[in-house]
């Protein structure tokens, strides 16, 4: 109801700018890197409202539809469950009376996302630690090899090049 009041207040040019048909499903799919099936699923589950169709039955996405799709993609990427996001989108359509409820949903989801980020940071820290363990082990092994070669006196690389220069490496490999 609130949306319809807002639409009535718009001039004809403003209405056309916000609600004009701008893209078909294939274009929207390509623009956002999601499949047409995903867009249909978003519509079916109420994540986006029913998309207006042309005379042939093809979906016509408006700029407002695209803004909703961008929001849904962002929230899904943040890990919001479909059910919660659908409830949130439904509450938007109910108007300003639901602002408090919508805010609470977002606050809870922010807390959940922060917890996930904390868990991911712990996982990243562990990976970094393990990589450093392997790098340090590798460096230690390389140092041992260099130390062993230095104990021999002349490095094996110098011996290799000396033998190559003397022509004594013709049958070095076999």
Secondary-structure class? mainly alpha
Number of strands: 2
Q: Mean of residue pLDDT? A: 83
Question: Main beta sheet, described?
Answer: 2 strands, antiparallel
How much of the polypeptide forms β-strand, as a percent range? under 5%
Distance between the termini: 87 Å
Q: Spatial order of the strands in the main sheet?
A: 1-2
Q: Report helical residue fraction.
A: over 70%
Q: What is the H/E order?
A: HHEHHEHHHH
Alpha carbon gyration radius:
31 Å
Treating each run of at least 4 consecutive H or I residues as one helix, how many helices?
A: 8
Which segments are poorly predicted (pLDDT under 50) over 5 or more consecutive residues?
A: none
Overall 3D form = elongated
List keywords for this structure.
about 170 residues, mainly alpha, two-stranded antiparallel ribbon, 2 strands
What does the model show?
The structure is a single chain. The protein is mainly alpha-helical and 174 residues long. 72% of the residues lie in helices and 3% in strands. It has helices at residues 2-9, 12-19, 25-32, 36-44, 63-77, 82-94, 99-152, 156-166, and strands spanning 21-23, 61-62. The protein has a two-stranded antiparallel sheet. Helix 6 packs antiparallel against helix 7. The longest helix has 54 residues, at 99-152.
